[in-house]
Protein backbone atom coordinates (compact mmCIF):
# COMPACT_ATOMS: atom_id res chain seq x y z
CA UNK A 1 0.00 0.00 0.00
CA UNK A 2 1.42 3.42 -0.96
CA UNK A 3 2.11 5.92 1.80
CA UNK A 4 0.06 9.13 1.66
CA UNK A 5 1.91 12.10 0.15
CA UNK A 6 3.62 14.23 2.72
CA UNK A 7 2.70 17.89 2.80
CA UNK A 8 5.14 20.57 3.83
CA UNK A 9 4.18 22.26 7.09
CA UNK A 10 2.72 25.71 6.56
CA UNK A 11 4.12 28.79 8.21
CA UNK A 12 1.98 30.74 10.66
CA UNK A 13 1.33 33.44 8.05
CA UNK A 14 0.29 30.85 5.48
CA UNK A 15 -2.21 29.52 8.01
CA UNK A 16 -3.59 33.01 8.58
CA UNK A 17 -2.17 33.57 12.07
CA UNK A 18 -1.88 37.28 12.80
CA UNK A 19 -0.87 38.73 16.16
CA UNK A 20 -3.48 41.39 16.81
CA UNK A 21 -1.87 43.84 19.21
CA UNK A 22 0.60 44.42 22.00
CA UNK A 23 -0.63 43.12 25.35
CA UNK A 24 2.25 44.06 27.68
CA UNK A 25 5.99 44.03 28.13
CA UNK A 26 7.99 43.82 31.34
CA UNK A 27 10.68 45.98 32.87
CA UNK A 28 12.65 44.84 35.94
CA UNK A 29 12.57 47.31 38.84
CA UNK A 30 13.95 47.44 42.39
CA UNK A 31 11.36 49.66 44.09
CA UNK A 32 7.79 50.27 42.91
CA UNK A 33 7.55 53.78 44.39
CA UNK A 34 10.73 54.89 42.63
CA UNK A 35 9.50 53.50 39.31
CA UNK A 36 6.01 54.91 39.78
CA UNK A 37 7.42 58.39 40.37
CA UNK A 38 9.54 58.13 37.21
CA UNK A 39 6.96 56.67 34.82
CA UNK A 40 4.02 58.78 36.08
CA UNK A 41 5.70 62.15 36.59
CA UNK A 42 8.10 62.10 33.63
CA UNK A 43 6.19 60.08 31.01
CA UNK A 44 2.55 60.58 32.03
CA UNK A 45 1.70 56.97 32.89
CA UNK A 46 -1.20 55.74 35.01
CA UNK A 47 -1.17 52.81 37.45
CA UNK A 48 -3.79 50.24 36.43
CA UNK A 49 -2.77 47.40 38.78
CA UNK A 50 -1.15 47.55 42.21
CA UNK A 51 1.24 44.83 43.42
CA UNK A 52 -0.29 41.83 45.20
CA UNK A 53 2.30 40.57 47.69
CA UNK A 54 0.22 37.69 49.13
CA UNK A 55 1.46 35.00 46.66
CA UNK A 56 5.08 36.10 47.29
CA UNK A 57 4.69 36.02 51.06
CA UNK A 58 2.99 32.61 50.83
CA UNK A 59 5.91 31.22 48.79
CA UNK A 60 3.88 30.70 45.62
CA UNK A 61 5.68 33.42 43.60
CA UNK A 62 9.16 34.91 43.36
CA UNK A 63 7.93 38.49 43.01
CA UNK A 64 5.12 40.89 42.26
CA UNK A 65 4.27 43.39 39.56
CA UNK A 66 2.64 46.77 38.93
CA UNK A 67 0.91 47.61 35.64
CA UNK A 68 1.22 51.06 34.08
CA UNK A 69 -0.72 52.40 31.10
CA UNK A 70 1.86 54.51 29.31
CA UNK A 71 0.49 55.07 25.81
CA UNK A 72 -2.86 55.51 24.06
CA UNK A 73 -2.76 52.34 22.02
CA UNK A 74 -3.30 48.81 23.29
CA UNK A 75 -0.76 47.39 25.67
CA UNK A 76 0.79 48.32 28.97
CA UNK A 77 4.06 48.26 30.85
CA UNK A 78 4.55 45.69 33.62
CA UNK A 79 7.03 46.77 36.28
CA UNK A 80 8.28 43.49 37.71
CA UNK A 81 9.95 43.51 41.12
CA UNK A 82 13.48 42.23 40.59
CA UNK A 83 15.91 43.43 43.25
CA UNK A 84 18.75 41.40 41.73
CA UNK A 85 20.61 41.93 38.44
CA UNK A 86 20.02 45.15 36.52
CA UNK A 87 21.12 46.21 33.00
CA UNK A 88 24.78 47.07 32.43
CA UNK A 89 25.82 50.73 31.90
CA UNK A 90 26.85 50.04 28.28
CA UNK A 91 23.66 48.17 27.36
CA UNK A 92 21.44 49.64 24.63
CA UNK A 93 19.45 46.50 23.84
CA UNK A 94 16.90 45.50 24.76
CA UNK A 95 15.17 48.84 24.99
CA UNK A 96 11.58 50.06 24.88
CA UNK A 97 10.63 52.72 22.31
CA UNK A 98 7.63 55.06 22.22
CA UNK A 99 6.47 57.69 19.72
CA UNK A 100 5.14 61.16 20.54
CA UNK A 101 2.74 63.21 18.41
CA UNK A 102 5.11 65.96 17.35
CA UNK A 103 7.79 68.50 18.21
CA UNK A 104 5.86 70.10 21.09
CA UNK A 105 5.33 66.74 22.83
CA UNK A 106 8.95 65.74 22.21
CA UNK A 107 10.20 69.01 23.71
CA UNK A 108 7.93 68.42 26.71
CA UNK A 109 9.57 65.03 27.32
CA UNK A 110 13.04 66.62 27.03
CA UNK A 111 12.00 69.42 29.40
CA UNK A 112 10.81 66.89 31.98
CA UNK A 113 14.02 64.87 31.67
CA UNK A 114 16.09 68.05 32.11
CA UNK A 115 14.12 69.09 35.21
CA UNK A 116 14.52 65.62 36.73
CA UNK A 117 18.27 65.64 35.87
CA UNK A 118 17.92 62.47 33.82
CA UNK A 119 20.66 62.45 31.15
CA UNK A 120 19.62 61.71 27.58
CA UNK A 121 21.18 61.53 24.14
CA UNK A 122 19.47 62.89 21.02
CA UNK A 123 20.15 60.74 17.96
CA UNK A 124 19.35 60.96 14.22
CA UNK A 125 20.41 58.61 11.45
CA UNK A 126 22.06 61.35 9.38
CA UNK A 127 23.20 64.95 9.47
CA UNK A 128 21.05 67.69 7.94
CA UNK A 129 20.93 71.48 7.62
CA UNK A 130 19.89 73.15 10.86
CA UNK A 131 16.10 73.18 11.23
CA UNK A 132 15.42 70.40 8.71
CA UNK A 133 12.90 67.93 10.20
CA UNK A 134 14.37 64.47 10.77
CA UNK A 135 13.32 61.38 12.68
CA UNK A 136 15.02 61.91 16.03
CA UNK A 137 15.21 59.76 19.15
CA UNK A 138 15.88 60.62 22.76
CA UNK A 139 17.61 57.74 24.54
CA UNK A 140 17.58 57.69 28.34
CA UNK A 141 17.30 55.28 31.26
CA UNK A 142 14.82 54.78 34.06
CA UNK A 143 16.21 54.72 37.62
CA UNK A 144 16.85 50.96 37.33
CA UNK A 145 18.98 51.39 34.20
CA UNK A 146 16.40 50.14 31.71
CA UNK A 147 17.04 51.75 28.30
CA UNK A 148 14.12 53.79 26.90
CA UNK A 149 13.66 55.64 23.63
CA UNK A 150 11.15 58.35 22.71
CA UNK A 151 10.85 59.08 18.97
CA UNK A 152 9.74 62.21 17.13
CA UNK A 153 9.10 61.54 13.42
CA UNK A 154 10.10 65.06 12.30
CA UNK A 155 12.23 67.02 14.75
CA UNK A 156 14.23 70.07 13.59
CA UNK A 157 17.91 69.14 13.30
CA UNK A 158 20.19 71.18 15.56
CA UNK A 159 23.69 71.10 17.06
CA UNK A 160 24.06 68.49 19.78
CA UNK A 161 22.14 65.76 17.98
CA UNK A 162 24.32 62.67 17.62
CA UNK A 163 24.52 60.83 14.31
CA UNK A 164 24.08 57.07 14.49
CA UNK A 165 25.86 55.28 17.32
CA UNK A 166 26.35 56.90 20.72
CA UNK A 167 28.03 56.08 24.02
CA UNK A 168 25.31 54.56 26.24
CA UNK A 169 27.24 54.90 29.49
CA UNK A 170 26.76 58.69 29.23
CA UNK A 171 23.17 58.12 30.36
CA UNK A 172 24.01 56.75 33.79
CA UNK A 173 22.81 58.44 36.98
CA UNK A 174 22.59 57.31 40.63
CA UNK A 175 19.57 55.18 41.48
CA UNK A 176 19.98 56.14 45.13
CA UNK A 177 19.00 59.76 44.41
CA UNK A 178 15.57 58.63 43.20
CA UNK A 179 15.26 56.17 46.09
CA UNK A 180 15.62 59.00 48.62
CA UNK A 181 12.71 60.92 47.01
CA UNK A 182 10.03 58.34 47.84
CA UNK A 183 8.84 56.33 50.83
CA UNK A 184 9.74 52.64 50.90
CA UNK A 185 7.56 50.89 48.36
CA UNK A 186 9.79 48.14 47.06
CA UNK A 187 8.59 45.09 48.96
CA UNK A 188 6.72 44.00 52.10
CA UNK A 189 8.27 45.06 55.41
CA UNK A 190 11.62 43.42 56.00
CA UNK A 191 11.82 41.95 52.49
CA UNK A 192 13.74 44.68 50.67
CA UNK A 193 16.98 43.22 49.34
CA UNK A 194 18.17 46.13 47.22
CA UNK A 195 21.51 47.79 47.77
CA UNK A 196 21.83 51.56 47.72
CA UNK A 197 24.01 51.68 44.62
CA UNK A 198 24.71 54.70 42.45
Descriptive report:
Residues 193-198 have low confidence and may be disordered. The chain contains 4 helices and 9 strands, in the order E-H-E-H-E-E-E-H-E-E-E-E-H. The chain has 198 residues and is α/β, with parallel strands linked by helices. The protein folds into 2 domains: 22-85, 2,3-Dihydroxybiphenyl 1,2-Dioxygenase, domain 1 (Roll), CATH 3.10.180; 89-171, Signal recognition particle alu RNA binding heterodimer, srp9/1, CATH 3.30.720. A 5-stranded mixed β-sheet has the order 5-8-7-6-9, covered by helices on one side. A 4-stranded mixed β-sheet has the order 1-4-3-2, covered by helices on one side.
Annotation field: number of helices: 4
In terms of structural class, how would the helical and strand content be classed? alpha/beta
CATH topology tier name of the largest domain: Signal recognition particle alu RNA binding heterodimer, srp9/1
State the end-to-end CA separation: 74 Å
Kindly provide the radius of gyration, computed on alpha-carbon positions and rounded to a whole number of angstroms: 21 Å
Second rung of CATH, namely the architecture of the largest domain: 2-Layer Sandwich
Descriptors:
198 residues; Signal recognition particle alu RNA binding heterodimer, srp9/1; 2 domains; 5-stranded mixed β-sheet; 16% helix; globular; disordered C terminus
Task: Tell me briefly what this model is.
This protein is an alpha/beta fold and 198 residues long.
List the helices and strands and how they pair.
Layout: E1 24-29, H1 32-41, E2 46-49, H2 54-57, E3 65-69, E4 76-81, E5 95-99, H3 103-115, E6 120-124, E7 133-141, E8 147-156, E9 162-163, H4 175-179
Parallel strand pairs: 1-4, 5-8, 6-9
Antiparallel strand pairs: 2-3, 3-4, 6-7, 7-8
